[in-house]
Every structure is written in C-alpha cells, then in structure tokens.
Write a structure and sequence with these properties.
Helices cover 24% and strands 30% of the residues. It has 297 residues and is an alpha/beta fold. It folds into two domains: 2-124 and 266-296, Alpha-Beta Complex (Quinone Oxidoreductase, Chain A, domain 1); 127-242, Rossmann fold, CATH 3.40.50.720. The strands form three sheets. Strands 3, 5, 6, 7, 8, 15 and 16 form a seven-stranded mixed β-sheet that branches. Strand 10, helix 5 (179-184) and strand 11 form a beta-alpha-beta unit. Helix 3 (125-138) crosses helix 4.
C-alpha cells in the first residue's frame, strides 16, 4: 500500500509517499480501508520534528474515515464493511491515517455520520473531540458565558457549536471577515479581540493567545488551552489547564450523531490525492485555510 511518512524532518518537501506493507490488526483492533483522512497542524509539527522521533520513519495522519476491512480477534462491535470514523492518536508512529489502510483500536472507532460523505466525515475526529473534551474540562453550566479564541478555525468552530448546543452563551474572537461565519455557528457575540477584562466565566483558547486571553476570564473562572503544558499560570483564582485529546469511540459516536442532527457543521477547504500530500502540507503552511484539507487515497 501507499503511505505518507517522513524520514527526515523539514518543510513540506520532507513528506514522502512510499510503499509499505498492509498492516494486520491484532486483538482489539480493526483495519480500516481509508476513504479520506484530514490534514491537521499537528501533522506539520510531526513533519518538522516538534515531537522528536529522529532516525525513524514516522507515519502522518490522525483522522480517518473509511470502511472496516479486517478485524482482529472477535473485532468487538465492528464488522467488515462497516463505515466508520476514528482518531488514530500518536505523535510518533510508524504508520498514520495518511495511507491506504490503517489499524486502530476498536474503542477509538465510531460509526460514520450518515448524512455526509467520507471526505467531510474525515474532518470530525481530532478537532471535534478536542473541542468537546476542552469544554468538559471547563465544566460550564447552561447560561454561563464562554469566550472562544480562534473561533473560525477547526477546533474553535466546533467549540462554538458544541457550547451553544449546551446552552452556553458564546463570544467568538476571530478576524473581522469571519464574523458572519462564527455567528452562523452559534456565537451570540463577536469580537476581533477587544474584550473587557474579567467579562466571561471561561475561555477556550484555540488561538494560543495565552495570558492575553486569560485576562478576559472573571475571578475564579476557568481557562483551557489546546497545547498540554503551555497554558498560562493561574491568577485571580482562575483555574487554568489544557486539553490533551484522547481517542474515545463513545464520545466520537455522540459527535457523529450531532452531525446527523445538524448541530455540527463539517467544513472541507480542499481535497488532495494522497500522492500530493506534500502539496497539501504546503497549502496548510500558507495559512488562511477555513475548513480542513483532506487527503484521498
């Protein structure tokens, strides 16, 4: 099979599409024939060496949508032919989802949304799980206020939609050109960054503003970042933490159901053949992408 890997760190040109053996699922695993796999900023970080792993081939890709092709052991709840989505967690792994086949643990898998195609489904796992798990860390109740930075991005956009669905009042921080978009996702208020200090119960900092965004949280509120360990120190009794996404098929199933209910919108910016993975990395590096770039084997 063909798979995108890096054997030496660098820019988009470091991404190679190579021949590799088709992986075999072990007990508690399934093999998925990949129909589509999203490209995320974490893939660019892996490619550039941000997470180490020098001297070995590293597979790229965390998100996958496709069809169960083989099961290991009893396969759990999954059967060959099931259409699924999954999060294949791991910074440094020999094969990722940017391949023709991928093996994942059964408990990371969920039934794919029925109302969208595989290309759109592939944008769900990593970013929606990150947003949902970040919101869970904030422990907000309906009627409380949340400010989301980077609200037009992938994680931020899901956070706006999920929070609004939970009855939380959302202020979206984004570029002026994105106001219509983030309001359509459910934001009650919009700002380009001029926010009164201490004016919200919590912040979900998808734009990595750090201490600047922390100032907007009321005394005793909560702050969650999206890079583990990079959140600012607590001040004024504000609880600060960061989400480290974890694969969870049960939670992913709930998110897929929200797609089918029309609560979550899946945004695709462009698609690329797997063989053009390096071009997709180059486009990601240019910035300004609204929605995800998706690789199709």
């Amino acid at each position: 099979m063909r798979a995108a890997v890096v054997t030496a760190f660098g820019g988009p040109e470091a991404v190679e599409v190579v021949d590799s053996e088709v992986p075999e699922p072990g007990a508690g695993q399934v093999r998925i024939k990949v129909a589509a796999a999203a490209l995320n900023p974490v893939d660019a970080g892996v490619r550039a060496g941000a997470f180490g792993g020098a001297g070995q081939g590293i597979g790229l890709g965390w998100d996958v949508a496709g069809t169960v092709d083989a099961v290991g052991g009893d396969g759990g709840p999954w059967n060959v032919g099931d259409e699924v989505v999954a999060l294949h967690y791991g910074m440094v792994k020999p094969l990722g989802t940017h391949a023709e086949y991928v093996v994942v643990d059964t408990d990371a898998v969920a039934k794919a949304p029925a109302t969208v195609d595989a290309v759109h489904s592939a944008t769900l796992p990593l970013n929606a799980l990150t947003a949902a798990q970040a919101l869970d860390l904030l422990e907000l109740e309906p009627g409380q206020s949340l400010l989301v930075t980077g609200a037009a991005g992938a994680v931020g956009g899901f956070a706006v939609q999920l929070a609004a669905h939970r009855g939380i009042s959302v202020t979206a921080v984004a570029r002026e050109a994105d106001e219509e978009l983030v309001r359509s996702l459910g934001a009650a208020r919009f700002s380009t960054g001029e926010v009164a200090p201490g004016s919200v119960d919590a912040v979900l900092d998808a734009a990595l503003l750090g201490e600047r965004a922390l100032e907007w949280v009321r005394d005793g509120g909560a702050f969650v970042g999206v890079i583990p360990g990079a959140q600012p120190a607590s001040v004024r009794g504000v609880r600060t933490t960061a989400v480290e996404v974890s694969p969870n098929g049960t939670h992913l199933s709930e998110l897929a159901a929200l797609v089918d209910e029309g609560v979550l919108t899946l945004r695709v910016a462009e698609t690329y053949p797997l063989e053009e993975a390096s071009k997709a990395h180059a486009r990601l590096g240019e910035g300004g992408v609204r929605g995800r770039l998706v690789l199709v084997p």
